[in-house]
Amino acid sequence: MGTLPKVLGFSLALTLVFTVTANLLPQVEGEPPKEEKVDLGALTMDSFIALGESAFNGKGTCTLCHNNLGRAPDLLEMNVGEAAKERLADSRYQGKASDIEGYLRESMTDPSIYVVAGFGKKGSNDTESPMPAVDKKPIELSAVQIDAIIAFLQSKDGNEVTVALPTEAAVEDSEPTGTVAATPAVAAAATVEEAIAKYGCSACHSVYDTESPVGPDLRDVGSRLGEEEIRQSIIDPAAVIAEGFPAIMPANFAERMTVKELGLLVQGLAAMQ
Ligand code: HEC
Ligand code: HEC
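^ thats the input. predicted complex w/ heme C below
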């Protein structure tokens, strides 16, 4: 076999595909998300970090909880490297990590190994984390995406980035379907189930067969609220705060959803009696 086919096969295998979801206003019908292809051979640490940042804000749904509303440590504001060193030195720490990179990876894939004081599930006395393992459903990040997020978290405060750029083998391993997409395209949701999964509503609400005590149970929301009230709860959550709950529902769904997705959610939730 000549070198040309080999070279071609190699650069194809080394192509990462990731997606930048366009900011979709609810006033307009959604366009399909843009896909960006990155040649792994030409991937620099800077673009890997950018990929991590987009997974942090997008597919990872990290900012649903990690923000300035107090539900989880504000990773964007704090120095994550310094915090990791403190956690590792804490006498309560019983995980396997010995450095910042290891701590961050463990925090994402096995959140209950160490629970930051005051942030545990209610009644668990900080032994159980409310954070879902991000390599499992519904978030399901690949190993490459997790590495990219670690690189982003290390770099944003000027700490040393210790994760290595992904190799061809790592990309193949982390994509069981045989594709090399680092972030699969987030298409516009076509059903209410898809919309709930896409926007991470079940991180905070009990809905279908998942339970979360952070916000009101949505399985019977249609018996409490009409369509207009549900619409307002989604696009302007601060307008009416459900009694007994903290005002921490993200306020930016209106900017992120298409008109059609919002309509699906409003009708779908109103039908949940
Ligand atoms: C449903 C809410 C939720 C989501 C989504 C979430 N986290 Fe968390 N996370 C938490 C909470 C609460 C804690 C603190 C309790 C603990 O230590 O597990 C935490 C802890 C952490 C820590 C340890 C912080 C420290 O101060 O030691 C890291 C790192 C982290 N999360 C990263 C992530 C990343 C990256 C994502 C997205 C891929 C993510 N989390 C998604 C709720 C969440
Ligand atoms: C970070 C947590 C969080 C996420 C993510 C979240 N919510 Fe909420 N939601 C809440 C909390 C807490 C409340 C109660 C406080 C309030 O009314 O703002 C609430 C209130 C609501 C209400 C009003 C319920 C009632 O009984 O009054 C609806 C409807 C709702 N959310 C729908 C959604 C939908 C749909 C999504 C996903 C697109 C979503 N939420 C995502 C936390 C969240």
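DSSP finds eleven helices and two strands in the chain.
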